[in-house]
Amino acid sequence: MSLNLFQFKIYVISVILLIALNQSLVKGIGCGERPLELVRSSRIVGGKDAFIGEAPWQALVKEERFFGLWRYNKCGAVLISHNWVITAAHCNSGLFGSLQVIFGEHNLKSIETIASERGLVERSPVVRKAKRVVMHPKYNHLTLENDLALIELDSDVDYDQHIQPICLPEKGNDFIDSEAYVSGWGVLSYKERTLPPVLQIVKVPIMSNKKCEKMYRKAKHNLVARKTILCAGYAFGGKDSCEGDSGGPLAVREGPDARWTLAGIVSNGIKCAEPNLPGIYTRISEYDDWIVKTVTNSHSS
Length: 301
Fold this sequence. Notes:
single chain; 301 residues; alpha+beta; Thrombin, subunit H; 2 domains; six-stranded antiparallel beta barrel
């Protein structure tokens, strides 16, 4: 196949963009940092209030219906660049609905103050509309396979102390036996359905898919743990993501620079925090190519 000069130039530009984007997202350049770093013991079911900036890549997805007359918190999402977030495909808006993405949110009932060079400064949440939602082409709404979507924002988000992108993982990284942190504003209990005003965060271990299948069988449930999912949680239960946390981050700190990396996003599970029923997450390392290609195509189009 022969290329004319214009096509060749477009091809070269696309390759350069792809390489640069892959390095910035996957290689850990300018991502995975927590400027408001604090050190404390481990802390959404069984978790604790997150401190401001503990998960600066965490976003809140709201759905608007009936021309904005009805708005509600729908899901979590994860910031990966100035104008893209990752979420679960099942978090897409319904008929006649639209999505908003909120960054820098912490306490849903009050505006927070953050220490800066000028002293304590109020930081209001940053709101963006979804310009478009790109669903994974193989998403199955019945089985929740390939439960992944990318949201392009209507305008860029500026990074701040409490708003930062997370790094994407290297392809093939399975994170088995890693300590991970999942966060969100989902219900605190599957039975009581209590919603927290403050972002919750909890530590859960990532296990092998074989171990996950074995645990589900022990709980009298059949699970086929495909390579596109990962499981995280405890045999005794007690700590887990839950309804309303979907699309939110499962983050792991790794590498020589100890940067935070997106191992997975909350997808589904059976109830919440039950014994031998760990949470199920979409494994991001299986989708690196699709993510980078999708974001790159938007820049070159």
